[in-house]
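Quality-control log, excerpt.
Job 1 of 2 completed; input and output follow.
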Amino acid sequence: MTSLSVSDTMRTARLGAKLGERPDRLLRAACASASFGSGVLGSIAAATARYPEATAIRTDQAGLTYAQLWRRSGQLAAVLRNRGLTSEDKVALLARNDVFFVVALTGAARLGCDVVLLNTSMAAPQIASITAAEEVALVLHDDALASLTAEWGAAVLGSADAMAASADAGRQPVPPPRRASDFIVLTSGTTGRPKGARRPSAGVSASAVRGFAARIPWGVRRTVVVPAPFFHSWGLAALLISLALSCTVVTRPEFDARATLEDLAASRADLLIAVPAMLQRIADLDPGDFFRNDVRSLRGIISSGSSLPPSVATDVLNRFGPVLYNVYGSTELAACTIASPRDLRHDPATAGRPAPGVRVEVVDAEGDPCPPDVVGRVFVGSAMRFKGYTSGEGKPMLRGLLASGDLGRFGFSGRLTIVGREDDMIVSGGENVHPVEVEDLLLTHPAVADVAVVGVPDAEFGQGLEAFVVPEPGADLDETEVRAFVKARLARYKVPRAVRFLDELPRTATGKVLRRRLT
């Protein structure tokens, strides 16, 4: 049995005073988590010991207290063990944001299984391909998504059957796992087949959570509304950080802008965790929706998962006040930089300053640091980075830092600005063009609702720009006006040679444009 030393006890008491927590609660938490380490399982065990009757997760259909989550996840772990699974196996989880997702994720982790998080928007053949490639032993799925597992042809367990079986396994305790699970998050796959990125569950330590939360109003026992999908790295991070801080997570299986606003008001939420596309849809709601829903309790709106357009940042700040934070990061690197409301008011395009404990460098072609305001490759060093891809691939490294795949520049103020992906850069007539610059400009046009700019072959210049524009409903917009708008504001080589109009852009669940579908 693991026990706490006198020094552990004293440290816990000092930490309680620092966080404003009762020392007895923290001592109970430390004892409860001692057998499970400082990662995800230890954090949930600690939260259960501190606030067993507090609500851990709530949807419009159901809710679970921390005590119920811990009990049911242990029962599910027993079910998986009885089906022959061990810590050597991989379990795939195909579920929307719901109670079942949290129970299944925690239950698999309590057995020590690695968990592959499947994107709920994938088609059945793609899910079959990924589960086969990842050598998954069992798919735990939301019953509403059962049809997507039909082509896999191996072991599956639906949510209703899983929960029923768990109720019968209550007297079969599962000991703490011998190893900590990895959560395998699929990369967005905007330019090709998604890859599995290993995120260690043991890496979500209390100290890392405290460091990140210190820059954002994400404290103990807050109410956090999370429409961002749990299967994606940003939604998963929001869920795990919230559980580690004994928060109440409010979510829904499907995102709806008006329902999210209503959830914020009804729960008197402290935080909203979303992706930029969601924030834009919320900001675009009718003023009457904001009049009917009092959201003055909000201490923070935290955006990540994809690039935050400056126009969206400004809209959200105007709607909600100085509560918007922008987190730049990735599945592989976790949080890299944080932009505060003050940063975003000063420069809506900024990614902010390095997060606590994170080192960020912008380097030139030779690997030397770039001077201020010079664009280069972004490299990041962080204790929270991923363990590598399940395929065995890695990412380029430099002086212990990992390549982000992005291009950016540090301003004289120390703030980072991301100008685009390395592989998205367009070279037209020998000039480098970053699509995001043209996209951000076009989003300021009152008749443009959404836009993506890509490079296409050009006989004269090597590459040219093509703009895919989604007009605002009822807007009268043509190609000539779009090109003239850019020509009046940017260099001639940044003017799109062609403009195509679409009803909507193909995007991932987190709002990233699937550029391969536009070329």
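Job 2 of 2 completed; input and output follow.
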Amino acid sequence: MKIILAINYVDYSDASNYSRKQCQEIALFVLNLNKPDNVKVVSFNYPDENVKIPPSFMISKSLKRDPVKDFKAERRLPYIKEIFNSCAEMDCDIFGFINSDILIPIGFFDIFKENKDVYLFNRIDIGETVGHHKFNDKHFRIIWDKHPGCDAFFFNKEWWLNNRDNFSNDLIIGEPTWDSYYMAIVPHLTNNYVLKRDVYHTWHEPKWNDKTIGGKHNLDIWNGLKKELNII
């Protein structure tokens, strides 16, 4: 089984983003440590971005769509479906996306033996950034184990190719509700999915905001789906 795991590496060069930079660095170190050989990690970025990832990871500077140009968003953030479609063009059986600061535990990839169409993962927020060895030994403090958002999505490639037209083309990552959209629509497309709480995240102040142009953009798409599916 071949698995593509997509990330979007963020260049936190600003000193004010030190905690986020540290969270990302440790998460990528843990991912590199814990992933099996059949998992290929690919960071999808824009052509002019500075990307510093472990040598065993791939970089695809193939992102084209830009919300700053498309609708004057404040930040240049990838469209999630552009990433998913790029993954589906690669040699794999399963592909997915995780936020670049998500900590993947040992044994995480065993779940893909269950042969589901879709795999969704809620996160567990943990305390201050921990060293990778402490994380793998589960020496950390849980802050919130009921986070409603999803930070990891994986799809059977064949299923995605047959169903991707049901998903909006225009949701951007790094802003609210794109994950809520995917979580809500998947059960309407397949019963063969799983929702787990098997990924971890070192808590920090969120950068997204549903009052920004990008946030309102995602929120409008999410509200449209809620109306269509009669979600209160």
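Post-run check on job 2. The chain has seven helices and nine strands.
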